[in-house]
């Protein structure tokens, strides 16, 4: 008999428009993997495969129903990922049977609901445009930064709990994003790097977008990147629409800019499969604050 029942840590694989995640419930039993374990879990050939590893933990702030840690493929921790947030909020909604839940992240707490069986709407606070919130290394006008890499020039900078630069181009598909985006992402002006959005305005209520995400991957969709692109287009006077559809390689997201300056991001989620992370893949992280942060 094949060893299908290998011992290990349960996980769920989910995705939002192809932006895929390995999700572990760390509420009853903490899960603090080392950077090498995270890399192996996310590896598409040697591990399970995913754009990020998500760990659900007990909340540490009032009103929150859970806390989500977001680990990039290199083991670093991200502040915000709105496709990931939709997936975990969907799980908490299914578990709690509530109409709305609040998820705590490093980038702030986010409220979500499910307007349809496979869709989640996130209510987001107002963006930050000030240079030190993004952050930039020095004061600059964030509307048009004096940065360029090939066809990517004069990006607009905005923070949605994580940093974004949005570059507008005539034809999204004509840009070799992996060639040009890394130079912007690693510019000295950006001490924490940034997600680089390459946006094409198709009509006042429709954008085509691709995002080169930190730490340096091209994903099929980026929720915060979609919001950043719509906000940048409005700030630059390219559109005045309050509801914009953002088309990415993985599919469509809907972004609504509310009268109070906040946002509503709506898009689909899907469960791919469930399984167990084998014990051989789990390497205990050192019991130090450096490698195993609380």
Short description:
The chain is an alpha+beta fold. It is built from four helices and 19 strands. The protein has a 17-stranded mixed sheet that branches. A two-stranded antiparallel sheet has the order 9-10.
SSE blueprint:
Elements: E1 8-16, E2 19-25, H1 35-42, E3 52-57, E4 66-72, E5 77-78, H2 82-96, E6 100-105, E7 108-116, E8 119-124, E9 148-149, E10 152-153, E11 156-159, E12 163-168, H3 177-185, E13 195-203, E14 206-213, E15 217-218, H4 223-235, E16 243-248, E17 251-257, E18 263-268, E19 270-278
Parallel strand pairs: 2-3, 4-6, 12-13, 14-16
Antiparallel strand pairs: 1-2, 1-19, 3-4, 4-5, 6-7, 7-8, 8-18, 9-10, 11-12, 13-14, 14-15, 16-17, 17-18
Can you put this structure into words, describing what you see?
The chain has 294 residues and is α+β, with helices and mostly antiparallel strands. It folds into 2 domains: 8-124 and 270-281, Diaminopimelate Epimerase, Chain A, domain 1, CATH 3.10.310; 131-261, Diaminopimelate Epimerase, Chain A, domain 1, CATH 3.10.310. It has helices spanning 35-42, 82-96, 177-185, 223-235; strands spanning 8-16, 19-25, 52-57, 66-72, 77-78, 100-105, 108-116, 119-124, 148-149, 152-153, 156-159, 163-168, 195-203, 206-213, 217-218, 243-248, 251-257, 263-268, 270-278. The strands form 2 sheets. The chain has a 17-stranded mixed beta sheet that branches. Strands 9-10 form a two-stranded antiparallel ribbon. β3 (52-57) and β4 (66-72) form a beta hairpin. The chain starts with 7 loop residues before the first strand and ends in a 16-residue tail after the last strand.
